[in-house]
Known about the structure:
This protein is an alpha+beta fold. The chain folds into two domains: 8-148, Enolase-like, domain 1 (2-Layer Sandwich); 158-237, no CATH class. It is 46% helix and 28% strand. It is built from nine helices and six strands; from the N terminus they run αββαββββααααααα. It has helices at 7-12, 35-46, 124-139, 144-147, 154-168, 172-196, 200-216, 220-234, 244-248, and strands spanning 20-25, 28-33, 53-70, 77-95, 98-114, 117-120. The strands form two sheets. Strands 3-4-5-6 form a four-stranded antiparallel sheet. It has a two-stranded antiparallel ribbon with strand order 1-2. Helix 5 (154-168) packs antiparallel against helix 6 (172-196) and helix 6 packs parallel to helix 8 (220-234). The termini are far apart.
Amino acid sequence: MTNPNMKIWDQVSTTETKYTKAAKVDGQNITSLNGTAMIMKATEVFGPAGFGFGWTVLEERYDPGAEIFSGEGDKRLSLGHALNHTVKILFWAEIDGKRGQFEQYGCTKYLYKSTYGTSTDPEAPKKSLTDAIKKSLSMLGFSADVFLGLFDDAEYVSQLKDGERVESAEDKIAEEERQKQERLDFIKSVIESLQTARTKNELKAFHDVAVRRLAARKDTTAVTRITREYTEQQARFEEPAPTNQEQAQ
Length: 249
């Protein structure tokens, strides 16, 4: 039985891959979400912004960050402190005729040191507000798969794209058949790899990679088939039991 508390979450937790892109922030690889796409999804669920959901800016400020320096040694000179723009909003939404609300923050670098020297971002307030709105929607389950780290799994993203290809295909049946054949070809190639593996470690590597990929797609039938073949092929690398004559010697 579906948990009624997860009604909205289950409806909005899956993200369309076309509204995401890879990005690097402070040296970390992340999945960036399109803010307008999230607003569009919220409109689909709650109604237009300002009617079914919305926000009020409660606070806006610039917070000092780390001190910025130029030069080294005796020529080291302080240029002041970095500044981060912060906005605090009250987000609200109507669900089943009841209005709920909570607070959320959004932050953006405003004044910072870059490879070109000291830089400022004039769009920081807009970015902070977008950040706060996206974080608010995430608390309701919007794009939960991204925030839960599922987009770090290439197989999860590949599975989403397969589903999107079916939805957008002119001939959905033909696309489904193509994907089914692609699955069968993959299973066949894995079995052939298992059967021709030259070492026990190579055998295990083929098995583990395939099972990880198939498990991500929740393809239990294929996992069972691969595991059975793996077990059978393990016998090739097992030491034969000594005969009675060999034991006597």
